[in-house]
Design goal:
The complex is a heterodimer of chains A (261) and B (289). Chain A is an all-alpha fold and 261 residues long. Chain A has 12 helices and no strands. Helices cover 77% and strands 0% of the residues of chain B. Chain B is built from 13 helices and no strands. Classes of the chains: A mainly alpha (261), B mainly alpha (289).
């Protein structure tokens, strides 16, 4: 054990402060959501579930919640197989053009989301997809694809493709050998990729601001509008629930990733 | 004249290529339809309105409101990147120098907010920073200030919340780079009689520069396009480029102008990536999530 130099102590102090800065905002929301006060006071005067009650009894919030869950689930169901197929091809193919395709598939991470949002808005306005459920799902599939592809590619890199060759030489066709040999071994990375796509769809706000409307507004759009007008502690209750959901999903995904590929 | 006999292995290879392209095409189609086409459309719309025109770009480059917004956005992005580096480097350094359990704990704390919605965090900062918020109450309680401080609905609040959101993008590449610096280099420095601060400055710091560049590029570029945080915490006074785009669409129906602003923003982002990729690989910038 080295002696604690003043520089080392300063390093500990600075890092601790930075970590507090990172964590504090995440932790502050839960106590606000359980407070009885209309306005933010800290510490909260007394414990109450009134904001949760307000959330669960409000039909607009409930409708938005249904939209969010539907969109996120459909996004996972569509983006996961598309992403797995793409990652498999990128990993296997020696075609020169695959490198370019790989880069294009990661475009949603590179293009500023506000630009994507406005572009999709103009496109949807032409083809009549504004304020529809399919429009919302499609946009989220596009945004979720990179997460699935990155996760599955990482899984495939630690998988030996010779195993699939063996299965095929023993008479299985390609599709069967993929499902029987390859998929079970990369399952964890597929599940993790799907979970990330779910979280991405659940948290997506900016594209929804432009293209969603009417009865198909997700939670985040309603939250954004509510936040612009006034600070309603109902948002704290919703935020707490959303954060809890994200954390549980991330824990699940990372447990999966650690277990398998 | 030669008769070409189809080579069975070549035929097999061609089938293999076709299969791989078929597998990647649904995903590619989604990307083409929902990001390449829309962004291309923006480009077209910025130069074509009943005939070709550069009017939109003339406005973006000459009118005050656009200029000021671009200048402000670059300024805020620079400040945010600088602060994120100052805050992120010590944390990455500490995580790198601690035993495994501790470094996992530190990194988890860094990544934890990453998985909280940006919207939720904007709400949290409003709760913390507003006039009747937690920080002002605390300051009043401690008798530091009589009047509540204006901490939010201005540039200050925007920067505080933006750094918070982008800090993980700085810490992760820094940590990944530091992990690759062999620790015996530091011991060699020490054995040659250099003080710890000298070995840090001459050996460790230069070797960590690729991580610094990767982190700074990512934070700067993400900040250029930031929307939710400045919109909710900027109080309408901090008009960043992204807000210019959305206002031109939603409030003024100025589609051509909005498209031109979007194109200039996108070109800036791609140019920064291109310059950065001359020094470090793009995988390094994008790969570390």
């Amino acid at each position: 054990m080295t002696r604690l130099s003043p520089a080392r102590i300063a390093l500990y102090a600075v890092s601790a402060l930075v970590l507090v800065y990172l964590i504090l905002p995440v932790l502050i929301i839960a106590p606000i959501s359980f407070s009885s006060a209309r306005f933010l006071t800290f510490p909260p005067p007394s414990f109450s579930l009134r904001w949760y009650q307000q959330y669960f009894s409000n039909s607009a919030w409930m409708q938005a919640t249904r939209v969010t869950l539907t969109v996120a689930l459909l996004t996972v169901v569509i983006a996961t197989p598309l992403g797995v197929a793409a990652a498999y091809a990128i990993n296997q193919s020696k075609l020169r053009i695959m490198r370019l395709i790989h880069m294009m598939l990661l475009l949603p991470l590179v293009v500023p989301i506000i630009i994507t949002a406005v572009g999709i808005f103009f496109l949807y306005a032409k083809v009549g997809l504004v304020a529809t459920l399919p429009g919302l799902v499609l946009a989220n599939v596009m945004l979720g694809l990179p997460y699935v592809i990155i996760s599955v590619l990482a899984g495939l890199q630690s998988f030996d493709p010779a195993q699939e060759m063996v299965a095929r030489s023993l008479g299985m066709n390609r599709l069967r050998s993929f499902f029987a040999v390859t998929l079970p071994q990369i399952k964890s990375s597929v599940v993790a990729g799907g979970i990330f796509a779910f979280i991405s769809a659940m948290d997506e706000t900016i594209v929804a601001l432009f293209i969603s409307g009417g009865q198909y507004q997700p939670l985040t759009k309603r939250m954004f509008t509510a936040l612009r007008d006034e600070i309603d502690p109902t948002i704290a209750a919703i935020s707490t629930l959303m954060t809890a959901a994200s954390f549980m999903l991330v824990l699940l995904a990372s447990a999966r990733q650690r277990k398998g590929a | 004249m030669t008769i070409s006999v189809p080579d069975p292995s070549q035929k097999h290879q061609r089938r293999e290529h076709a299969l791989m392209l078929a597998l990647v095409s649904p995903a590619l189609l989604v990307i083409l339809a929902l990001i390449v086409l829309p962004v291309g459309w923006l480009g077209w719309q910025s130069i074509y309105h009943d005939g070709f025109t550069l009017e939109n770009y003339r406005r973006v480059f000459t009118e005050d409101i656009y200029w000021r917004s671009f200048a402000l956005t670059f300024e805020i992005s620079l400040v945010v990147t600088g602060i994120a580096l100052l805050l992120g480097y010590p944390v990455a350094y500490l995580a790198n120098s601690m035993p495994k359990g501790w470094s996992i704990l530190i990194l988890s704390l860094v990544v934890l907010p990453f998985w909280t919605s940006v919207l939720v965090r904007a709400y949290a900062w409003l709760a913390l920073l507003q006039r009747t918020g937690v920080i002002n109450q605390l300051l009043r309680y401690l008798d530091v200030t009589g009047e509540p401080l204006a901490l939010v609905h201005n540039t200050f609040g925007t920067v505080v919340a933006t750094v918070h959101i982008l800090l993980p993008f700085m810490v992760l590449p820094l940590y990944a780079t530091m992990q690759k610096i062999p620790s015996d280099l530091m011991q060699a420095g020490a054995s040659l009689g250099a003080s710890p601060s000298l070995t840090f400055a001459r050996v460790f710091l230069p070797l960590s520069l690729p991580g610094v560049l990767a982190g700074c590029t990512m934070v700067f570029v993400l900040c250029l396009g930031f929307y939710i945080t400045p919109e909710l915490l900027g109080g309408g006074r901090t008009v960043m480029v992204s807000m210019l785009v959305s206002r031109n669409v939603e409030l003024y129906n100025q589609f051509g102008a909005a498209s031109a602003v979007a194109v200039v923003l996108l070109v800036s982002v791609l140019a920064i990536f291109a310059v950065a990729s001359r020094f470090i690989s793009l995988d390094r910038i994008l790969g570390q999530k």
